[in-house]
Specification:
Strand order of the largest sheet: 3-2-1-4
Bound molecules: fe (ii) ion
Structural class: alpha/beta
CATH topology of the largest domain: TIM Barrel
Strand content: 15-25%
Number of strands: 18
Helix content: 25-40%
Distance between the termini: 33 Å
Shape: globular
CATH superfamily of the largest domain: Metal-dependent hydrolases
Largest sheet: 4 strands, mixed
Number of domains: 2
Radius of gyration: 22 Å
């Protein structure tokens, strides 16, 4: 692996003018002036811009991405029409098509500095084509993207015929994580039963759990309680993620005051998906319309690890998206009203370090001894990164530059005014 020194970096913690030495794929040292001490080692000038550890998307559906319009558009825009539409598309899927779309997505992800992704993989179809294709993609991108695959029984673990066996088979094939969708089972009792069975599988196989859980506006959708309880019961603390948890938005406050400590006891990772939650939740409401995002600041304050995921891009559920996790953080910030400087920084963590923690990524971070993976952004600090969704000037993996993007520069030509380059509203305040 090539050695590299990134010079004059601003770090997310506020340190400026730092050099980052990457030796044999790992960050060896972070300090000012390293490049001057070690002539001969290639350098990459960060020019005072923000250098961040790579972005991490802990909740995505790579088997569905870039399938927008296949075989038709989601007219209502609802979760349920999305699931129905995906059901129509499934028989038409091919291995080649799935791999081609996923690889195109991965290229986009790299260009956005997104180097770790946890994808749920629908394992409801008896052919298990999606599992096979995503394992193929996982192998192809393993040199530059940490891709984790969740065995996700989209049509219900107990509700869908054959799902119990298909989930086991997909884990035998090599999927990494046990998924679930308890709110989509036929009854609350079935949902709770599915949570117990799936946690037992995870405990028996030594795997993590990541369930779509309570993606609903129903305040009585309380599967998160079962998930926390079974986590403790099976000794899975710290290895279980609850994705979405949108019903918590609508729950009774007294009940939540009892629930959050149980979730903390389970050391549950909470993965909210702001883009999708704000578009799919509240659909049965007239006015006022609920936002549906789970209780992000309250969960953070209780010490839970809270993450923002992207969930969807150009698929049956969401016809937008860019693989840009700063956009995801921005939506989360707005919906959760996390506008203080400290809260904005927490939102940046939600798409970087928190997400890496939920995925259990080894050697992640901008610390000595961590992997030599980083992103140079055309922004001064994390708040500006969220505000601008800036260009990823360089993406580095193990000391090697794997993507570069030209800086965004606007050139104005206005009557009666001199030409200006790089207007302050687009450029980081102190960088020209
Ligand atoms: Fe999802």
């Amino acid at each position: 692996m090539p050695d590299l020194i990134v010079t004059n970096a601003a770090l997310p913690d506020g340190r400026q003018g730092m050099d980052i030495a990457i030796v044999e794929g790992r960050i060896e040292r972070i300090a000012p002036g390293i490049a001057a001490e070690r002539p001969g080692i290639p350098t990459l000038d960060a020019a005072g811009y923000l250098v961040s550890p790579p972005f991490v998307d802990a909740h995505f559906h790579m088997d569905a991405t870039l399938s927008l319009g296949m075989p038709r558009m989601n007219v209502s825009g609802t979760l349920l029409e999305g699931i129905a539409l995906w059901g129509e598309l499934k028989p038409q899927l091919t291995h080649e098509g799935l791999v081609e779309r996923a690889m195109r997505y991965c290229d986009l992800a790299v260009s956005k500095g997104l180097l770790a992704i946890r994808s749920h993989v629908d394992v409801s179809d008896p052919r298990l084509l999606t599992a096979e294709a995503m394992l193929d993609v996982q192998a192809r991108v393993s040199g530059y993207i940490d891709l984790q695959l969740v065995a996700f029984p989209q049509d219900g673990y107990l509700r869908s015929p054959g799902a119990v066996e298909l989930l086991e088979r997909s884990l035998d094939m090599g999927l990494n994580i046990v998924g679930g969708i308890p709110h989509f089972e036929r009854t609350m009792a079935d949902g709770a039963d599915s949570v117990e069975r799936l946690c037992r599988i995870a405990a028996d196989r030594g795997l993590p759990v990541d369930m779509h859980c309570d993606e609903s506006d129903d305040p009585l959708s309380r599967h998160v309680e079962s998930l926390a309880q079974q986590t403790v019961r099976f000794g899975l603390q710290g290895r279980v993620a609850g994705s979405h948890l949108t019903s918590m938005h609508s729950m009774d406050n007294y009940y939540v005051s009892k629930l959050i400590p149980l979730m903390a006891e389970a050391q549950m990772h909470v993965i909210a998906n702001p883009l999708i939650n704000i578009t799919l939740q509240g659909r049965h409401d007239t006015y006022p319309k609920r936002r549906g995002l789970t209780r992000v600041p309250e969960l953070m304050a209780a010490g839970l690890n809270v993450v923002f995921g992207q969930d969807c891009m150009m698929d049956p559920w969401y016809g937008l998206g860019t693989a840009d996790m700063t956009g995801v953080a921005s939506m989360g910030l707005h919906v959760a009203q996390m506008t203080s400087r400290a809260a904005i920084r927490q939102c940046f963590d939600a798409v970087t370090v928190n997400a890496a923690k939920a995925m259990g990524l080894e050697g992640y971070g901008l610390e000595e001894g961590c992997r030599g993976d980083l992103v140079i952004l055309q922004a001064a600090d994390p708040a500006e990164a969220i505000r601008l969704s800036p260009a990823r000037l360089a993406v580095v993996k193990g000391g090697k530059v794997i993507s570069t993007t030209l800086p965004q520069i606007s050139r104005l030509d206005l009557p009666g005014r001199p030409n200006r380059i790089d207007p302050a509203e687009y450029a980081p305040a102190q960088k020209h």
